[in-house]
Structures are given as C-alpha cells and as structure tokens.
Amino acid sequence: MAESKGNGLQSALRRRLLMGLAGVPAIALMPRMSFAAGPATATVNTTGLAVTDTEVTVGILHSATGTMAISETGSIQAEKLAISQINEAGGVLGRKIKIIQEDGASDWPTFAEKAKKLLVNDHCAAVMGCWTSASRKAALPVFEQYNGLLYYPTFYEGLEQSKNVIYTGQEATQQILESLNWVAKEKGAKTFFFIGSDYIWPRTSNKIARKHIENVLKTKVVGEEYFPLGHTQFNSVINKLKLTKPDVIFTDVVGGSNVAFYKQLKAAGIDLSKQTLLTISVTEDEIDGIGGDNIAGAYSCMKYFQSLKNPNNEKFVAAFHKMWGEKTVIGDVTQAAYLGPFLWKMAVEKAGSFDVDKVAAASAGIEFKEAPEGYVKIHPNHHLWSKTRVAKALPSGQFEVVYESPELIEPNPFPKGYQ
Amino acid sequence: MTRAPSSTVHDNPFMKPMEWISLALLVAVIFLVLPMLLDAFRLNLVGKYLTYSFVALGLVICWGFGGILSLGQGVFFGLGGYLMAMYLKLEASSVENTKIQSTPGIPDFMDWNQITELPWFWKPFTSLPFTLLAVIVVPAFFAFVIGTAMFRRRVGGTYFAIITQAIAAILTILIVGQQGYTGGINGITDLRTLHGWDIRTDRAHNILYFVNGGLLVACILFAQYVKRSKLGRILVAMRDKEDRVRFSGYQVASFKTFAFCLAAVFAAIGGAMFTLQVGFMSPSFVGIVPSIEMVIYAAVGGRLSLFGAVWGTLLVNWAKTTFSESFPELWLFGLGGLFILVVLAFPNGLAGIYRTYVEPRLTRRVKALEPAPAVALPHAAE
Lengths: 419, 382
Description:
The complex is a heterodimer.
Chain A: H1 2-29, H2 41-44, E1 55-62, H3 69-88, E2 96-103, H4 108-121, E3 126-129, H5 133-145, E4 150-152, E5 165-167, H6 172-187, E6 191-197, H7 200-216, E7 220-227, H8 235-244, E8 248-252, H9 257-267, E9 276-279, H10 284-290, H11 292-295, E10 299-302, H12 311-324, H13 332-351, H14 356-363, E11 367-368, E12 376-378, E13 384-385, E14 389-393, E15 399-404
Parallel strand pairs in A: 1-2, 1-3, 3-4, 4-5, 6-7, 6-8, 8-9, 9-10
Antiparallel strand pairs in A: 10-14, 11-12, 12-13, 14-15
Helix pairs in contact in A: 3-13, 4-5, 6-7, 9-10, 13-14
Chain B: H1 17-37, H2 40-65, H3 73-92, H4 108-112, H5 128-152, H6 157-177, H7 179-182, E1 193-194, E2 197-198, H8 202-228, H9 230-240, H10 242-247, H11 252-278, H12 288-301, H13 306-326, H14 331-345, H15 349-368
Antiparallel strand pairs in B: 1-2
Helix pairs in contact in B: 2-8, 2-11, 2-12, 2-13, 3-5, 3-11, 5-11, 8-9, 8-11, 9-11, 12-13, 12-15, 13-14
C-alpha cells in the first residue's frame, strides 16, 4: 500500500497547487464583480467547500436521460430558475451561485456515483437533487458519509429523517390523510380500491391509507393491487373494479403506466365524472402524457397545483414560462424543487456560514413566505409544514382546486399507529 | 480415429512473449499507473469498472472461445452482488443501528414491508465464510442447471441467447416484486462494514481496489490456463464445427456447460467485488440492459482477447463517465456513436486493432531481442 499513501500526499499537494493557480485569474476579475462584498471566505467556509470570495458551487443531480427524465426535467428547470433569481438578487452571502449539473441517468447507482463526485471532487456546498425514492436511498449514504446537504423535492413515503437532507416535498401522511377525510365527508365514500405501482412509495402510502380508512374512518378497503413499474396492461384490475364497484378508486400508479391506466379505464367505460377516483401520483406533468380528456374528473391530492390563485404563484408561473417556454407545465414536484435553493439561501444567511453542519442546524424554523404554494416552514425533522389540496382534473390538463386544508399540516415521517 | 496432435511444452508455452507483455502492461497500469495518477474518488470508480471486466472476461471464454452468446450475464453478476450484499446488510442491521424500526435487528426494507422476522434463507448469511462460498457456488449451480437443461437438448445460438435474456428479465421481476425479501427496486442499500471493517473509507476503497485487481489478474491467468489447455481447444473446435466435435466422441454439452459455469463464476466474483466497492446492489444490474451492456464491453475490447475484454470495459466506462460529466444532456449520443464506430470500423474490437497494427511491429522488435525478456509473475492476490 506504500504507493497509494505516497499518492495521497502527492494528490493533496497537487490539488492545493491547482487551487492556488485557480485563484490567480480570480484576482484580475475581482474589481469587475458587481456583487456586494460578503464576509470573508475563511469565516463562512471552514470545511473546505467550493466557496470563493465571489462564488459558491451548488450541484444539481437529476435524471436528464432515461425513463425518469420526463419527470425530473421540471425539477432541473425549477432549480435553475430559483438559482438565477437568487443570483440576480445578489447571491448568497455576497456570492454568486455556480451550478454543476450531473446526470443520474434514471439509474440508482449512477446517482450514488455522481453524488460522490459532487461532494468529493467538486466540494458542492449543497446539492439539489434525486427524485425517486430509489435514487434517494442510493445517494443518502453518500451524503451522510461525506457530510453533504441534499434538497429532495419529491413527495415520498416518509420513514426517513437525516441531518443531511431537507425534504421539500410532502411525506405520505401529509398528503394522504386530509384527502381521505375529504373524500369520506364530501362523497360519503365507504369502500376503497387501491391500485399502485410495485415499490416502496405506493406500498407504504397504501399502508398508511388503509390504517386510516379502517381505524379512523371505520370504512373498508375492498381491493389492493400492485403492478410492476412500466406495466401497461390494466384490463384485469379494471374488471375487478367493475365487479367490486368501490366508492373510491385510490391510485398511486407512477410514470408511464399512468398513460395506459387512464386510457384503458376510459375505454372500459368507467366515467370519472360518476366514479370517484383519487390519485396521489398525478400532477400536471403526468397529464401532459395521459391527455386531459382521458383523466378529466379525477381528483388529485397534492400540495401545489399550477392553477393556485395567489400573487406568489402568479409571479412564479410567469417567470417559469418566461425562462422555459409558455407550453411547459408546472407540477407539484417542480414547485417543491423551486423551494430548495431559497430554503438553502435563507439557512446559510441565518447560519452566517456555508458549513453543512451549521446550515443543517439553522434550517429548523426557516420560513419562506414567497413560496408559490403559500407559506412554508422547515420543521426540526427537516420536512416542511405545508397545506394539502385536492383538485379536479380538467380536460385542459390543468386542475381546479376544490379543497384546501385550513391549516398547515405538521410533517410526521414516523407516524405512530400507521406503521 | 486419430488423436488430436498433442503439442510439446516447447511449442505450447503457458503464454507467448507478447501475452506476457500484455499482462505486464495491464498489471503495471492497474497497480502502478492508475493509483499514482488518480485521486481516491476516481480510483474507486476504476475499481467499479474493473468489476465489470470480470463479466467481460467470462464472456470471452463463453462467447469468444465457446461461441455461446449469453445475454444474461447480469443474472450472475447480480447473484454474486446480492449474496454479498445480504451479508453486509445483516451486519449493518444490528439491533443498535435499527432501533427506530418496529422490529429492530432486521434489514430496514423488511421493516418497511411489515416483515417481523428474518426469513430463513437470509439466516445463513450472518456467516462470512458461508457468504464467500455462496458467492461462488450459487451462481455456478444456477449456471449448471441452466446449462445442462439447454445444452443437453442442443439448444444453442440465438435460442440460447434469447432464453438467457428471458432469465435476466424473470430474475429482475422476481427481485422487484418480492421487495420485502430483496429490497425491491431500491435494492439493498446503506452497507457499512465487512466483518467489522468499515468499507466506506478512502483507505478501505484503496485496499479493495488492489484486492479487486489481484482477483482480476488471477482470473485472467486461470482463463489463460483454460484457453491453452485441451479443453480450450475443444471449445474453439466446438464453436467452429460443433457436429464434427460431437461425432469425434466428445460430450459437447458438458464442455459448453463448463464454459458457461466458469463465465458465471467470474461474473459473480465481479458482482461481489462491486457490492463491496460501491456499497450497494440493486436490480438495475441484473436485467436485460446491463447484461447487453456487458456484452458490448467484451465486443469493444475484442471478444477473442482476454486482455482486450479488460481494456474494452475500462474504455467504455471511462467514456461513459467522461461524456456524462461534460454533457449531462447529450452524453448518450456520444456513447452510442462510440459503439457504432467500433463495431463498424473494428469488428474485432480493440484487440483487433492491436493485432493488426501494433503486434506485427512489436513482434519484430521482440524477435530482435531474443531471448524474450523474463517477466516476473505477479502476485495472484494481495
């Protein structure tokens, strides 16, 4: 092992030399920088992150290729928009944010590899990234080992809490319980049929939904079916739906399977204006693929819809369309991804430092009043307090909000009695 | 019936001088050049690539020499990786580490799936010797069953390729579907220690890299041994004229099964080393796409060359990483272009380029320097 030890010294020396060299041109640039001088780099960065006097490096790690690209592109766009807005407003602690983007390629090990690259090679101060639970699970040990900071935008199954992750989407109980209460009260629903994709998020979500339906609402689940990711044949389960005639079809089918599912449902003559269908997995992005006509009448339960009427959201939608084109739609996760850079900026400013430990500690209690979804606040468990909304899908591909929880819902990733 | 002309030791040495040089070059690059040039992160990446080259090496024997194209090598890579991951996961799931679960002491994904007791087939994997044995024996047995079933019925060529592909698909669906027992699509993540030794540190990655390199060289030497043995010649004969070999009285099926099993064991060793170095295993290494990708590694390197397989794997993965870091949105096109270029312009891969353009010149030089320079045999394992 002698040569590897020697090499360690060599490479550290080389890196230091390179870092010194990299500083040389920066000196020439300094007078031209329009940014207000922030606190000295040595005081705001004591752990060797990629922070200079004028710049701070942040990573973006999503799938730009592969099956998940269709979903994750919105998140990439939202994060880039947020970062450009922060830079226009003067950056973070007087430093402009520089983006290093990596492609997770819809492949979980690649997420782990690229996360490591962003932390170990690029010394990113924070990373906005991951989308599926699987990619987060793969990257999480890397973030914990190298003490990185991940802003994760997707609504997910809960059962997780890490110092190194800020979860800007909803965890399962936030998303599900209110909507079940609403459908029981509003539609008088007594029987439920669950249909989901076969992986951890739908299974955990349905487990929580079942406990709530059986123990709290005192009603019944009449069927529960799972299909592999990418499955496109739903005829058998549609026949079961016709036999059991549930009051509510509750679905968490994800990705491309949605397209087949709703088309086949329509072809089988199940009219969603008469049959109540509640989904926790369809946003404006998915409707783009499904087609508004095929899903019109279904209810979706999310914390954000593009059609929300409030000044923050109108500004956000206009800025998003200006940057990425009028035709882009904005789904729940896209909005949650937009929150990440702002929440990080505020935590850094509160901590007065880029150090991950200090930023993580300062995160609890951070409030973001300009969030498109309305007011959000970071809970000490690193999830967000947020409202839940139920909305009806319209043929135009947009949603009409029919219910909004009156209060912010507390995030509870380890719900007692629901496990 | 005449016997195949038996060669004397003199005209059939273990390796020709050129092969010794190839080996020395590979050893020098793996053990000296790369560790000196690369930082810990990049070296760990190369270590990961090298685990794929075990599969490519197996494919050279099975496909290049034996003519059996398997599009399901991911199955064996995955088996090796999963068996190793089971051991590591059990070690990481001590009661203390998992006290927030409803049932402490079992892997986290089981807890999420309401399993309250460790399933029986997980239990033996608390033992390291059992795990190491299983990494070799289980894939070999599996390959033996498939091989016997197929080759005895004289299923070969395209049909065999399709069946192996189907097996890869079946295993993926099984793993994804049984998520309570296998971790589902997430795979088995968050692996920490090997028999109490933290495998996540840079130092551990370094050591594992050298162990991996040592095992690879050992596998190359073993493959070389098979290649120059009588058995290797029968494999080549079978590939070129199967019926003639059969009519000469050889049990063709047994030879084919052997080649297939050997490829499976190599792939499994690669899989186990992969899990150790990367720190997790997921079904995305078992399915059809990775299996075909592994065939591409062997094709790019040259399917007839043991060393070419390793270089091919390194080249393709290096290109993959470099393209994707430089062009996160366009890199797949670059990679696709590379494959098309190699297959169209150099059907025998890197080894083909080497044989046509480099070797003739080198051989002239070496001949001039007779006797061939002695090259020390490298350590088989660190």
